[in-house]
């Protein structure tokens, strides 16, 4: 096998999984990239879109709606400690630098623009940065480390999340085939946090308004999702993300009530109430 073939073997694996019967997480070569802010703009009242560009985004890996990158922030004393390349991985310094993970909302290979939609949680490191950052500032991003590749042969799809997952929900709905059918649920505070979604015609889209309830406390998303009815014999793929405690009951529901195999759903805790630097909690086959 030539070096070029070896370097692109993940692309061949992505094609295999997409043409297969079950979803699978496929690792990518991980890079650390020096980018610069091109612009920022609101995406509804709850998100800020930070668009990154510059030579450092060339060749960015983007293949699946649930991809994420880490933004690296300086230490409190202003020191920026970056990981070093280590083959297809990165070698991280210790103690681990301050980072936050964000969904890859869009990557345009032609312009090199990379969009990250950042939820405006009060007092959050990333939210405060997104509010204040200006065009021309340098941003280092690492990843994505992998993507969840989902075949296009399921009969129905269920995509659901809270505000933190709205960027991934939006990308899911854009990238599914226009013939796909299913349900999308998004829990937000109110209509001001809704964004435009390019859903296939066969999708039911439900915006859930939690009102005055604090994020991650309402139970609204889990209750609404469990109202769907899947027809006998239909193959469903389910992707759900949000506050870890809120979505936890849905793992058992997908397995026990709907009878889904482990490789036919992904339930990911994107954040956890009271935990500033929570790492993703996944529940799917790696």
What's this, in brief?
InterPro entries: FAD-bd_FR_type, FNR_nucleotide-bd, Riboflavin_synthase-like_b-brl, SIP_FAD-bd, SIP_fam, SIP_rossman_dom. The chain has 286 residues and is α/β, with parallel strands linked by helices. The chain is 19% helix and 35% strand.
Feature tags:
six-stranded antiparallel beta barrel; Riboflavin_synthase-like_b-brl; 286 residues; disordered C terminus; disordered N terminus; globular; Siderophore-interacting protein; alpha/beta; single chain; five-stranded parallel beta sheet; SIP_fam
Structure explained in plain terms:
The structure is a single chain. By secondary structure, the chain is an alpha/beta fold. 19% of the residues lie in helices and 35% in strands. The protein is built from six helices and 15 strands. The chain is globular, with a radius of gyration of 19 Å.
């Amino acid at each position: 096998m030539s070096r070029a073939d070896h370097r692109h073997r993940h692309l061949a694996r992505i094609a295999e999984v997409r043409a297969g019967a079950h979803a699978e997480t496929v690792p990518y070569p991980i890079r650390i990239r020096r980018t610069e802010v091109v612009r920022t703009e609101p995406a509804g009242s709850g998100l800020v879109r930070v668009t990154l560009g510059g030579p450092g985004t060339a060749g960015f890996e983007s293949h699946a709606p649930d991809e994420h990158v880490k933004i690296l922030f300086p230490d409190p004393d202003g020191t920026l400690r970056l990981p070093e390349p280590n083959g297809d991985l990165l070698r991280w310094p210790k103690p681990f630098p301050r980072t936050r993970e964000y969904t890859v909302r869009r990557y345009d290979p032609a312009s090199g623009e990379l969009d990250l939609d950042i939820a405006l949680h009060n007092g959050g490191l990333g939210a405060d940065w997104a509010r204040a950052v200006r065009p021309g500032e340098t941003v280092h991003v690492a990843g994505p480390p992998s993507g969840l590749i989902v075949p296009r042969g399921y009969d129905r799809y269920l995509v659901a999340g809270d505000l933190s997952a709205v960027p991934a929900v939006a990308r899911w709905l854009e990238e599914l085939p226009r013939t796909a059918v299913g349900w999308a649920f998004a829990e937000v505070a109110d209509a001001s946090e809704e964004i435009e979604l390019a859903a296939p015609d066969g999708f039911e889209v439900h915006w859930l308004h939690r009102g005055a309830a604090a994020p991650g406390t309402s139970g609204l998303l889990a209750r609404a999702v469990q109202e769907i009815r899947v027809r006998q014999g239909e193959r469903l793929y389910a992707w759900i993300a949000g506050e870890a405690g809120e979505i936890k009951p849905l793992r058992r529901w997908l397995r026990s009530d709907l009878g889904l195999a482990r490789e036919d759903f992904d339930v990911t805790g994107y954040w956890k109430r009271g935990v500033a630097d929570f790492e993703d909690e996944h529940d799917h086959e790696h």
